[in-house]
Write a structure and sequence with these properties.
Helix content is 54%, strand content 9%. It is built from 31 helices and 18 strands. The protein has a five-stranded mixed β-sheet. The protein has a three-stranded antiparallel β-sheet with strand order 11-18-13. Helix 15 crosses helix 16.
Length: 792
Amino acid sequence: MLRKERKADKLKDMLGSSESFRSSDTIPDPSGSNIPLVRTDRTSTYIKTLHRVSFTTDIPYFHRIDKYNEEKVCEYERKASELALPVSYNLKKLFRRVFPILRWFPRYRVKRWLIGDLLSGISVGLLTIPLSLAFAVCAGQPPINGLYTSFVTTVLYCLLGTTQHLSYGASAFTALLIAKSISHNETQEADSDSDCSPTCPRELYVITLTFVAGIVLISMGIFRLSFLRTYISKPVLNGFKAGTALHLLAILLSLILGIDPSIHHGPLSFVHNCKVIIENITKTHAASVITGLAALAFLIPFKIINFIYSRHLIPTEFIAIVVSIWLSYWLELEDSHNLRLINNYPFILPRPSLPSFSLISSVAADAFAVALVTFAVSISLGRENSKKHNQSYHPHQETIVLGFCDLLLSFLGTFAASGVCEQTLVQEKTWGQTQAAGLMAAGLCLTALLCADTLLPLVPRAVLGAIVIANLGSYFEFFWKYCFACKKNKYEFVAGIVTFAAVCILDIDIGLGVGIVFSILLTLHRLQKPSSDILGHIPNTENYTVLSNEKTAKEVVGIKIIKIFDSIYYGNVDFLLSWIKLKVNCYLQSGRSLESDEELYSEEDKYHMLLESTQFLTLDEHALRRLNHTKLYRRQISKQTADVHTVILDCGSVSFVDDEGVNALIYLSERYQSVGVGFILASCSSAVLKSLQEHGYFKSTSQSLAFSSIHDAVLFSLQQTAERNQSPQGSEYIPETNGETLAEGDTAEIQTDTDNSTKVELYQMERGETVSHQKTDLQSKKQRIIEYETNL
């Protein structure tokens, strides 16, 4: 207590009263805004909040307390305050982070959330039971293994998961990958390294495969490799899901038709399976076809109703399962009509066992494929749901949780799991609020497991196939989202259609890899051709926009404003230089005729152009009439030539510039300066300015400034041009007064000050010089001009 009181007294002496703290530790913003700045130093900082005063260290100088930096200061304060807390608090925080149920369960609102979680858990559980059975059949595993997988992963995710609406269990992706692995690697009897040995080599192979996949996922989470998800775009994922649905559809058709063809897995497997189904079409069982079509006729209309009302109101899948069980038992369909049931496997829980370490080398490739596919699907599904509901999401922890689920499932004797799109969609639409809905779904799965020996063997295979087919609508999102809008999103459409074709032709694991690689190459191709445009000024404002986007925008005469919408790096430097050369091409033209320009711009047009330019120059009507050769705006005609004295490069959208990019900017600056054209950078970020300074741009180009806005750069350019045109030798302005030649000693000079105002002053010139004599001298000069296209 004495130590705490001493610290409090010391803190009070250092900070003083609240009035002195506010007056001494905050200073006004030099820019004129009312936002205070925090006074800091390198060793320690004293920040006062509404709750407490704390010490923080290593905060940069003068953080502005705006919406962004306020969060940063609070983060510094929180970390500093935690250093003084006891170790028990840090352990408690660690347990809450590892077990998210310790965060949401104590704050559970029973009156507000319990009804929604109950309805959501019942809906998800009633859907999980038939889907788990169907996916286990597709994987070539006992149906009860799929139900067991969903039960275990649902309970684990409720304890360790960070997303409220994500549902784990047996999925179509793991079913197809495991079926492919089994078909390619039929193993012989092998003894396990432990006392627990499985009864079948196929089960041992699947257990080892699941174990290695779990190790891979846990390693990815520990080493923070979840950032790889950023390279999987949504079009690629949607194309992958659509291709997977076609592979699954070929297998499900064989269940509905009641045939047992040899399912092929690997490249061209979809074509081979379709061919086998067509060849065996004469062997179909009428009872299976009628049962499957009847189930589809019952399921699809209710699916449409649920989609229209955006709620999973009716558990049609569970109703179909109950009705089919009752009909199979009452009518004895298996004996009387030879209806195919799922009773060809024993309905007993798998026995716990250990993987065979001697099989790790043979299952490594397939295990990596299972781990990467389940990682891509689960992390993408979780991130999409968290963004939709504005929830926090921890991809590294999610990856570890998924790997831990696979690891535990391997010891329990079943196969791998992943995020299930159908169950997640239902949980999201049925008022689910927390992970407690998953616990209710797990309870229904446990009930089904307890009744598995008596009821589940009576489920027809055709009904399971119809249930999965009716839920494939979310897999075909790619077609109505991208195919019908291919003209608007052509790059997304190309990435998705290539992934879809690769999955259909090469199989789902290889197809996903091809889609990711193609998407990355397509992105690099787009980055190599940066988007650039010519900007124009909107009259009476300080805004500049693309000429093609705003009809009122006009180009400033003598100034070419170029905006780059991408970073400048080694990959797009050549394209950028060629584009600038095309739009801003300097060449020497001798003997340019002024009469052609006079034909394009009448005196009245020039007057109106200057009248609209009051943002730059405020001249009276008399001065505007006299300066009839001064044009601030360039009329948008098909093609013309004019003198450009400044090129402004807007770098507001440039995030970084590398060494080759800086060299390209130096090249442009030196090239334009050699022909008397200024080159100015505007709206550069701090990172870009730092790169320019580190690579010696300002030293190489003898430029010591870069403007914070385009408007400042334009005003500076106009001011410099007006100062150069003050002298009679360098002036390009031809003064006239309503058709009258100026008298001896009269000329016009424009002086621009910082307030954007101009003063018209008359000076004396030698008498006898007329305007026609000035035009003749001007025609004889060789000038560098720039040819451009204003009508883009």
